[in-house]
Queue: 4 jobs
Job 1
Amino acid sequence: MSRIIRWGLLSAGNIAGQFAQDFSAVENAVIHAVAARNGDIARAFAREHGIEKAYAGYEPLLADSEIDVIYIGTPHSLHFEHAKAALEHGKAVLCEKPMTVTPEECEELQRVALRTSGYLMEAMWTYFLPPVQTALRWVQEGRIGRICQIKADFGYPQFPFDSKKRVYDASLAGGCLLEMGVYPVALAWLFMRQDPAEIQVVARHAPNGVEDDLAILFNYPESVVTLGTSFRCKLQNWAYIIGEQGYIAIPDFWRAREASLYVLDDRVDHFVDKRATEGFHYEAQAVTNDLLAGRAGSSVVAARDSLAIQRQMAMIREAFSDEA
């Protein structure tokens, strides 16, 4: 019998629920336990998703010797301490994006992974979606020529405003950049693989001062990237990778189900992912496969990728802080 990778969920919130819902499509793996600060919530989550164990508090989950890997779905500001604790307990870690809230935290967490010989990956699930991987392959094959522009945005209204609501709560690293802007920033890095020479940002802020609407321009020597994110309005949430010879359109790129390749006005190729899930199982399967193969890290979301995304978000924050 092949080895089964046993997962533990450190959180019983909404994102953990989506992750668990898709897990039935993951092979050679099982969710063994879930933990929440409130034991009743953990037990209800376990019943809903058919999970064997439920823990009140996180320490029992980390101490469970049967668990191979921990999925962390807590608020952004807690990712660093929870991922660090899991690594120091000898667990592999899949940590929700953004993995940390600063580049410095990201670097320190990666040092902990090296010190403990632990597996650490940021849960950038968009990178694993087949339409995004297909678009990347089209670019690498030269089908659109040299990239001239990238356009990507991600925004949903978060009304009414409440400073205690997680997405607005400054103490939990609230604001649209880390909550939603991480998606277009990560997409730009996936296709560009370099830092921009110049960044310009137009920012709007919620009543408590956290950013709630951003328009971002990355200027490269031969390309321009325009990104947007917002709590104020529903954005298109598409991505366009535009080259000298054609362009790629990815509707709802963050949860992409299709991608189209155009030359001028003609669609010349089209990929559709007919999955029955939301798509979280792709990243879970990739981590499972890495652990079964004894790999030290991910080749899809590598340490340098997570650090680059953190670095670019810090550059964006600096740009709109200077603007203020």
Note: The mean pLDDT is 97.
Job 2
Amino acid sequence: MDMFIDGAWRPAMAGARQNVTAPATGEVFDTVPAGDAADADIAIQAAARAFESWKHVPMVERVRIQKACAQAMRDNAELVGTTLNKELGRPLLACVAEITRSADLLDVYAEEGLRLTATMSIASGPGEKTVVTRDPLGVVVAITPFNYPVTLLMFKLGAAVIAGCTMVAKPAEDTPLSTLMLAEIFHKAGLPAGVFNVVTGRGRGIGAAMIEHPVPRKIAFTGGTAAGKAIAAAATGTMKRVTLELGGQSAAIVCADADLEKATSAIARHGFANSGQFCYRVNRVYVERPVYEDFLARLTDKAAKLTLAPAGDDGDLGPLVNEKIYSNSEVQVADAREKGAKIVLGGDRKTGTGFDDGFYFPPTIIADATHDMLVLTEETFGPVLGICVVDDAFEALRLANDNRYGLAGFVFAGDLAKGLTLCEGMEVGSVWLNDIHRSSHYVPFGGMKESGVGREKGRYGVESYLEYKTMYLSYEVAK
């Protein structure tokens, strides 16, 4: 598959290519161009030309086109989901669900576009009016990760396009194919050439060239904190705006009066989804001492029922996407063992027929974890949970906040007032009380501290692709 630029497929200028590997089998099943600065410039110039016309397209027409793209995603969900299943390794049904749910977000952004307004002050003098409106920023660069490549792209694309911006996207090296497929699908659904372009290559090559290019006005990035800091620093050279959704090390607090059945069900479901490969999963759990053993037994029982999906078969969890991501889990488990924690479930790589060629790690629970262990201090991005006993819920709150990340938090408490107080005290962008739902398409999503800058989803996402403009109007007053 080639890059999709200005409504057409094209190879890299230098002709270089890179492999796409199926994580379940280790098989190289496709290749994509290994683009460089020259390819970045071609795509950005195409987006800049398209911006000159797209920004003038009436909102109602942009909405019509975006809704057509959303429907095209649904119509092709099985096709794109099958490709995503192969390049990511996640079970097929979950991949198809990612496509359809992402289509819903496009519709939400389209509806928010219809609600955008300008304002006119009524405090002006005779013969004067002051209008505050908003203009689209321009060309946007989107750099997305492997774990939810379609969803996290739509966080950015849907908001940018409805605001009147154009985009050049660079998907992760592990999962480029689903994004490339969507570019063609959207073009066939009516999105004009150059509005959405996709380039492929390595981050330090083509990605850096896009960030440093003088034309784009914004970088939208989801990924690791170290990379996000480097992007933010580079973006200052041309004063680009940034939206950065970065790492997470999200904590759950379980109070002694919590509904343990609900708490353990929610944490098992959320902590191990996508084999733990997402930013706002439960990573660590603080449990009050009176219910610690009961909580641990219930959670272990539920997590033990989750199955791994070997190559060519079904199951709840797929392999980790590559060796680098896999090693996080292995290193954190080894660190916890060395420092005296108990591994009550999992803890070792899964091997055997159907597993040997992929990086499979089973659901793993580390009991008696302490704050000198990596599992309670560093992002895992794998199916490993650290469980820590505490004597008081507010001790748990202190420990939860004693972390450089601030993406999400979770509280389980029978006493609603206590639960709300803990929620208000958590230094995070989103917090759940007494259950864990999917993040809503209508409300802001993003982090505090080193978990990022800015917000995505709903009207908040659209507004981040708009620039305020004040117009001062003067006229002769009729007499």
Note: The longest helix spans residues 92-114.
Job 3
Amino acid sequence: MRKMWLWIGGGTLFFGALVFVNNSNIFAVRPTTRATILAHRGLAQDFDRVGLQNDTCTAARMLPPTHQYLENTIASMRAAFEAGADIVELDVHPTTDGQFAVFHDWTLECRTDGHGVTREHSMAQLKALDVGYGYTADGGRTFPFRGHGLGLMPSLDEVLTTFPRRRFLINIKSNDPNEGRLLAAALRARTAEEAGRLMVYGGDAPIDALRNAMPGLRTMSRSTLKACLFSYVGYGWTGMVPPACHNSIIFVPTNIAPWLWGWPDRFLERMRYVGSLVFAVGPYSGGDFSSGIDTPEDVRSLPHGYGGGILTNDLQTVAQALQRSKGLGDAGPKGGAP
């Protein structure tokens, strides 16, 4: 009996040591470049985030402006790349004339002088709007961007033509599978090199349709992300990467990251091997995944030498914090020119 228990104990120790070595960062290849910065909506106006709901008009609760740029515009994207962003996230809606408008909101009333559902307009109609019309930092007494956003809502084609060598993360704002097919048709019209710089996330149905049409494109939906992370927590200790994690975009909330086997270096190495990109985001609390690494404290909370991606809503603050953080490297640009 004693011999049996010795065998069991020895086997348990051996198994534990094997799991430890397999998931240790000691033998992982640590990236030598700095963290990749993903700028959410480019260089955007910040707003009060307390008590936000899905239908909250964020332009009406803008904080006092620190720069002149409006989200999802060409000027905002150019400024974001110049400030150190490697990838810019943008939002798209199909238009009645077969294009995709780059704009965040489902409806037009919050930010613009227009009315109605965004996708129920032509691109020409959307181009005629003032995208800075609704921004106010003092409860509606003044509107500092009113009159300065005329004609600034771009089409997706305009963005990709302006920045043919830059990387973008495209957000589909609906759960309509047809929108995934329409976007696939639009992206197939680009060169293979341009399409290779693009990633897409959004509702489960359009992402499933898009992935079927363009299996080589990196994509993510809420269901694929949860399947990836939960499955990896379950059996990632083996070194196996769940199929849901392959050729994907993986948002890792900072409060979930410690549960991921081999976080950060071994985890990042495994995801790179299956063609996926990882971005650290803010803590997950049951809502969406739009909270980012937005403060110097958030940057300091990342592991020393972290070489994955960072999603941020405050590019200027985070780029400066990265420059000051020796462990995360230089925050200067590392992407191609527009």
Note: The chain has a mean pLDDT of 88.
Job 4
Amino acid sequence: MSRTTIPSRALRLVAAVGAAGLLVAGCTSNSPEASEDEGGGQSGAVSNNDEPGETVTIGFSGPAADHGWLAAINSSALEEAESYEDIELRAAEGTNDPSLQISQIETFINEGVDAIVLLPTDGAALTEVATRAMEAGIPVVNVDREFSTPFAARTTVLGDNYGMGVSAGTYACQLVEENDLTDPVIAEIAGIDSLPLTQDRSQGFADALEGCNQEVDNRVAAEFTVESGEAEASNLLQAAPQIDILWNHDDDQGVGVKAALDNANRDEMFFIGGAGSANAMRWIQDGEMEATVLYPPTQAADGIRVARLLAQQKGMSDLVQPAVPRRIVLDAPVVTADNVEEYLPLGFES
């Protein structure tokens, strides 16, 4: 697929949200080869952080795996811990009950683990116990859902919800230009509207579309489930007899969206997904979907890596700054037929 110039305002937005994603590179590129300065200056890397060090005990508490992305969060954390011989992982049972998760963190504190990686069921509800862990000298790595105060975590690892919207909207603008779409009908199927993450995704999408003088013409909100995706997509299709570009926020609910499209024999649109499921990537390979925007399911795995560095009192070797950053925001790239093979190993099963 050819690539055209991205509208300048949208390009600035992508640059802004993408720059923060570069921070995580220090976690994932620790080989000496990856750290050589190609410009002839001084190399920033001074050590290989993947070499075994002092054994550390990391407590991990994540959500119940009732959603493909959440299941991938948990499994990626477990697999990452197993890849290091100097990590002893104590993984609590996944739960959507804040009270149970609080008791899990209290157990980790009493056991004196070296670090805690926590994707909170409810960031506000888990803030107090996470703060207690920090006060006990146990560094907490907060994943995906932020606490109410920065004092509750040493480092926070986040996906970029606003950046997802920017990436989807920027790609939509590219499709408008490449295909010479005149007055295109652009539709959006959001997730749960009351959640800040959904609001951020929609705002990023609208902001990027503004860069090419477009806007969302038809919008519905689902609930991140297959059933709700199919129901809301069916409603949308009835209300909009013609759609040129459709962005669905979540690939798990996208299974239902795709079923509604197939049932209605609607294939006139460019269908863009969100989160990066394996089935969405297979649809891209088969020509049944245009693209999906990644919301990395590796956040907890990155959290495990960062917790190991903190517990071993190391920094990110590819950064000149010796300390682990307090905030790491991962990138939200667009996966298309051109690069799907690269991202397919990161895809999760819906």
Note: The longest strand covers residues 56-61.
